[in-house]
Write a structure and sequence with these properties.
The chain is mostly helical. It contains six helices and two strands, in the order E-H-E-H-H-H-H-H. It is elongated, with a radius of gyration of 19 Å. The protein starts with 6 loop residues before the first strand and ends with a helix.
C-alpha cells in the first residue's frame, strides 16, 4: 500500500484491521475469491484503491511505533516503581480502556 500497489488480504487474523478500507478482502481458504480479487486488481481496479492505500499506509511509521513502544515501557517502569507488578494484570487494567482504544 505504501508503494501505491493495491493489495488483497485475507480476512483472517488482524489483516482486515491493519489493511482497513484500503484492500480487497478474501476468505483465507477461498481460492476462487483470491483469484477473482487478483483479476479485479489487474483488469479493473477500484479507482480510489491506490489513493486509499497510500493514505492508510501513511498512518503507520517506524518512528510512531518506536515512540508508542517507548511510552509503554516508560509507563510499565513507572508502575513497577510505584507498586508490585502482578502477572495477572491485563493491558486494559494497566493502561485503561481509553488509552488502548486510542492506539490505531
Amino acid at each position: 500500500m505504501a508503494c501505491g500497489c493495491p493489495v488483497v488480504v485475507s480476512t483472517a487474523g488482524s489483516l482486515p484491521e491493519i489493511a482497513g478500507p484500503a484492500a480487497l478482502l478474501v476468505e483465507p481458504r477461498d481460492e476462487r475469491a483470491l483469484a477473482d480479487a487478483i483479476r479485479t486488481l489487474i483488469l479493473d481496479p477500484p479507482s480510489d484503491l491506490i489513493e486509499r492505500g497510500l493514505a492508510h499506509a501513511a498512518r503507520f511509521s517506524w518512528d510512531r511505533t518506536a515512540r508508542e513502544t517507548l511510552c509503554v515501557y516508560e509507563t510499565l517502569l513507572e508502575r513497577g516503581r510505584n507498586s508490585p507488578t502482578r502477572a495477572s494484570e491485563s493491558p486494559a487494567s494497566v493502561f485503561g480502556e481509553a488509552q488502548l482504544a486510542a492506539i490505531p
